[in-house]
Amino acid sequence: MAGAGSGAGRRPTRQEVNRRREGAQFVGRRGELAVFRETFARNPEEPDFPFLFHVRGNGGVGKSTLVRQWEGAARERPSVVTAYVDDDVHDVFEAMEAVSARLGRQGHPLKRFDKQLAAYRQRRHQAESVVPAPQPELQGGREASPAGTVAAQVGLVGLGMVPGVGAFVGAVDPQQVALGADRLRAALNMRLRSHDDVQLVMNPVAVLAPVFLDDLAEVAERCERVVLFFDVYERTGPVLDGWLHDIVFGEEYGGLPVNVQIVLSGQLRLDSRVWGDRLGQVTDVSLEVFTEEEARTLLATHGVTDEPSVELVLRLSGRLPLLVDMLARSDPGTGAGRGDPSETAVERFLKWEQDAERREAALACALPLQIDEDIYRAIVPEAAAGSYAWLRGLAFVSPQEGRCRYHDVVRAAMLRLQRTRSPARWQRAHIRLADLFRRGRTELEADIRADPDDRWLDAAWREHQLNETYHRLCANPRTGLPEALRQCAYAIDLDVATLRRWAQILGRAGADTDSADLISWGSRLDSAAEQERPGEAVLTLLLSAAELDADGRALVHALRAAERRGGGDGEGSLADGVRAVSLAPDTALTHAALGETYRNLGRHEEAVASCTRALELDPGYVIAYGSRGDAYRNLGRHDEGIADFDRAVELDPQYAWAYASRAQVYEAMGRRQDALADYDRAIGVDPLYEWAIGSRAQLFERMGRFDEALADFDRAVELDPQYAWAYGSRARTYEAMGRRQDALADYARAVELDPQYAWAHAGGAQVLAELGRFEEALSGFARAVELDPRYAWAFGSRARLHDTMGNHEEALADYTRAIDISPGFNWAIGGRAELYGRLGRHEEALVDITRAIESDPSADWLLNVRARTYLRLGRYDEAVADCVRAVEIDPEDGWNQMLHGVALRAAGDGQGAEECFARALSLFTGAGEEEALLVLSCAMLDADQAAARCEALVGLAPGRGVIAETIEDLMFLPGAVPEAGPCVDAAVSRLREAL
Q: For 932-944, how does the pLDDT look when each residue is reduced to its tens digit (9 = 90+)?
């Protein structure tokens, strides 16, 4: 026996044997089965190869049975893998995930897709948690514009609009983000701190689908054929149509492997609006009821051959394959129950089952939407409790990975029978089921995070809530509707797929109870979910519901406030927040929601007041602490911010956002080690928390710990090879390390991944300028400001490049544009002042630089700029005074010491100058200081040393940009120290030769 397994190949699994048995018993549809089998004898590269099937027909004609037979026929082949997807999926992501799971169970997981999907869900949760908008700061030299800051403060959260709760549906639905995408992008950029995170959250299909197809291609390379089945397509088609059409016929996401076949199965024709131009390439398989011959053949296989029984089954079933099979299995030729032909097939089936307990169990199990063994045992008579396997074997029951469900045709008939026979018993049964699911979700709540609203993030909890809602609606549509509508508000707060589930549940309960109100609500909610802004559309619809009480309306207003913030409607958001508080003034959630609105509008004092009121009402409201803590941070009230974040993580030790936000406060306080520790904690809680990883990398960079910064950026790229922001940020670290070629390569990779990434275009342009590739640099800056016309740093950097190239008018225009965009942009103000000085427009230079120093008195470099202006004007004492202040601010800066020496020499203090020059020389000791040492040698009037330094600098081939800047620094000296003229002339001449 041991040799049989190895010599003859592996033994089949029990499932394979079962499929063979079912295939052998399959009766009818021989032609349709043959059509599919024949495709395996053909080359899929043939132009007319049937790669896309659509099986269609009315309910009960056997579509699912045929599709399962097709899947069995495919799986009989040794190198064919399949994936079967039904209406358990409600959006594209769940469909791709289901395919990956099915292929994974056959040894072919889509590993990169699974990893990217996990990253998507984690990033979306980060966005849900409202990572706080940071203080305006330079990013690669870029300062946020006022308009950009407003956009960055747009809140995109869900429930309560405070960190950590709910999703803003617009950020995960491509139709919504298409409207106002720029505003959403700006807001998310500030919250996620990662451009690629923004791309993933705003348009996840565009990011995930290519990875899905790449992984699928690898599976297809290893297999003869991959077959994807999408059953019950009349339900899933509205959300899957566009994606499937694009992956089959489009090129946006990449190519579909030629040996992948797709089978769609549903009651309706394919939507011509989506498939119209490709319907000629779809192999249409239309199923009708059985022919009489097929029906008789099936009956004969089950022993039903006597003519009266055959005639009765044919009449009762209408030759509908499902009912023919069901009745055949139930009356194997006994002739039982021939009388009373007016009774329905379902009633007759129940009469033919001789065991009364099983008949009752069959009826009871029609009530739930799906059944597992636990549900079965809870609702059937005790005598039938051990018969779950019997139920799963019934002809109209479809097993589904541990669960099973009734065919819609049979279930509808059974429900109708029970509801009309005994309305009171019907109501009691549904209440009992609702209570069963309530107990299930209550048990789960004990393991869910500290904040009760986080339960909506738990899929198992939502499933219990969904089923409880359905059964309460069935028990009493009128009393169940108000709470069901509240659940819809929570559902839209999570994502569109979840809302569709709730809309379908209302519609399903309406059909099962014959309630026009429920059917109408289900239809209207489903239609609202298809709008360009589904969140706001659904919430506005809910506000029209007379069934909602004041608390329910307050909840909806609070949620709509978040949706409006997401669309950039700050005033509308505020109006909704205020209305929510007026409707429910004693509810912590509404005050916390209003506080978050104020915070995102930059009204931080009011945010603190609202969050404080929320905490008075509910001292354990975790996210109110987080939101108030961030408001304190924005107000500079760091100790209070730390206290709130301390309390938040005390209440919820898994609150990663709070750790990362507290780290930001520590950074603002200069407590870098504490900040690092908190970033470590955040990443420890959530190893995929890329915002925290990126923030830690940036802190490492600011601390000069470049190797650790690179390690974090490398980790981010490893987590997501398509992570353009990580490449761009790593490029900036390479710049700081002097590794310009590595920086240029990373900027190029970032732009390749995202051609719309303005910051990466500008960063790459800056490196090109430093390498002396001026024309390429100008093109990069031009592209950056084209993509972002309010990109102040790009205008300022291009101004500096124009200045270096001698294009003074263009430089002044760009400096002025940068300052107009961002009036507090001191770097640009200082640059324009320097240019004014070189052009002899000294008074204008003084106006600019004095204004900048007033806004930032501690900026030593600004004092140096003004000192140089004073030197040009011959106002030496004032120049010396500014240099003294600069040295006091940073005595370890060699340039501060050197300029102080120049000012002293110009003022006639030669000895003081020499002392300053000596201190500067001791500070210019590291690698890469050749430029500074050359300027210092000229200032010290050491011609021989200057010549040597000049050759050393040229020998490094630093690039045209560095040489041009060195010439600019040298040219300043003769005006202040005329004796330096000959030395400077010689050095400048050699550098220009090198250019």
A: 888 888 999 888 8
